[in-house]
Amino acid sequence: MEYDIRLIVSDIDGTLLDRSSRMTDYTRQAIHDAQAAGVTFACCSGRFPENAAMVMAAAGIACPVISTHGAVVEMSLGGERVFEKFMHPSAAREVF
Fold first, then answer.
1. Model confidence, pTM
2. In the chain, what is the straight-line distance between the N-terminal and C-terminal CA atoms, in Å?
């Protein structure tokens, strides 16, 4: 059976990174192989955008980053921000 995979999205902590917060060579190569095959790879995380993107850049992977639990989507490290949706300050004060 053949699949038409166009997008892979993966969490960072505990998924792409091991317990030592390192990406294995196997994982790094699998991502590069998917990208070379024309599949868009994106990472997602509860981390802040800059931190999540820096983790991927340190591993040598350029990819879109979905961060702060989906509140921000950027195309790359320091790249175009295509989506952001933050809680209104008054709503945040009510939560606290």
1. 0.85
2. 51
